[in-house]
Design goal:
It is built from nine helices and twelve strands. The chain is of the alpha/beta class. It is elongated and about 85 Å long.
Length: 359
């Protein structure tokens, strides 16, 4: 009888350890180290609690001898404390925001250095940084661009796994084509919050929900029907220029020998986007125009996509650039000091996505 109950007790312990071990391995495989630590603490706590009460034989012998069961109170208390700590850690981790920071220009641009400005304490978020400043400062060519894109893809995939069941945030200060590629690798995934950097005030701000009655500038084509001015029978490429933070002029686009469609707000300015609804509407307006190009221009093969806008806009529109339904979308980087204002770009979609393009 005693051996049977010892086997039973050992079996219960093994089951507890196996279940706990399963969740530890699962979270480690998903690169969720903090969850794995919480799983380990809870598993040890439960094991200590279960074994602190002794076996069935202990209880039977105590009953027959009219003695009280001698439970291990210290072990029970220790197990209970560990279980509570594990539950607290898991609850804290579940409520923590995972902020993706794409940093391609300045090493010091981190939310952790500005968390008070956006109402966060240092325990409320975890910042996952894609930092390619060192690579970018070498000068962008095909090899450097490929290295940066490879790093972006790897870290975006890691971020998706690690933050899968967490609240997510985004911020970034990086060349627009690389931000769009990050968005492309993040397609079909949600992003909950957005943080933008105000370079004049050197502070971060968080996009908020638009208050009732508040309005924001509308993003519209420069003419009512921009496709009506284009010869659809011969046009195989167009430029789509989105002016949010600064006006993109036809003179700046003179390197492109094809029709140009402008999307613009009445008065472009830095940090124009302050509301989540504003971001969604701008992205939707731009996506609808890009998507309708194929329908209005049956011979189109490429869209040269120019953005003067904030990082959150480039990231979100990148998520919507489809591989199958859209023709090749090439996004370009602006250079004020270059005679060719958009000297290089990256193909965002299709079989050749990530390809470096020079002009």
């Amino acid at each position: 009888m005693m051996s049977v109950n010892i086997v039973f007790a050992i079996s219960v312990i093994i089951i507890i350890l196996l279940i706990g071990g399963f969740f530890v391995v699962k979270h480690l495989a998903n690169k969720q180290r903090e969850e794995a630590i919480a799983d380990t603490v809870m598993t040890v706590g439960i094991e200590l609690i279960v074994t602190s009460f002794g076996t069935f034989d202990d209880k039977l012998f105590a009953f027959l001898s009219h003695n009280e069961v001698k439970n291990n109170i210290v072990q029970l208390a220790t197990g209970s404390i560990l279980l509570i700590i594990g539950l607290f850690l898991m609850l804290h981790i579940k409520n923590k925001m995972y902020i993706l920071n794409i940093n391609g220009m300045f090493h010091e641009r981190r939310i952790e250095n500005h968390h008070r400005e956006v109402g966060l304490n240092q325990f409320q978020f975890k910042e996952k940084e894609i930092d390619f400043v060192r690579l970018f400062k070498k000068g962008v060519d095909s090899e450097v661009a490929n290295d940066i894109i490879e790093e972006i893809q790897q870290k975006i995939n890691s971020y998706k796994l690690e933050s899968r069941d967490k609240k997510r945030g985004y911020t970034g200060v990086a060349p627009i084509p690389f931000v769009m590629m990050a968005g492309k690798y993040f397609e079909r995934e949600r992003m909950d919050e957005y943080f933008e950097y105000n370079k004049l005030e050197q502070t971060y701000y968080q996009l908020e929900k638009k208050p009732i009655g508040k309005k924001f500038p509308k993003l519209k084509p420069h003419v009512q029907d921009p496709f009506a001015l284009i010869d659809a029978s011969t046009c195989n490429e167009i430029v789509v220029a989105v002016s949010l933070t600064a006006t993109i002029s036809d003179q700046q686009l003179s390197q492109f020998n094809c029709p140009c469609i402008h999307l613009t707000v009445p008065s472009p300015k830095d940090n124009l986007i302050v509301y989540k609804e504003q971001l969604r509407e701008y992205v939707q307006t731009t996506y609808e125009l890009l998507n309708s190009s194929d329908q209005n221009l049956p011979k189109i093969e490429a869209i040269h996509f120019i953005i003067s806008g904030q990082s959150c806009f480039a990231f979100e529109i990148g998520k919507l650039i489809d591989d199958n339904r859209m023709k090749a979308v090439i996004n370009y980087q602006y250079s004020a000091q270059s005679s060719t204002k958009y000297p290089w770009g990256i193909k965002i979609n299709g079989e050749q996505k990530g390809t470096f393009i020079t002009n």
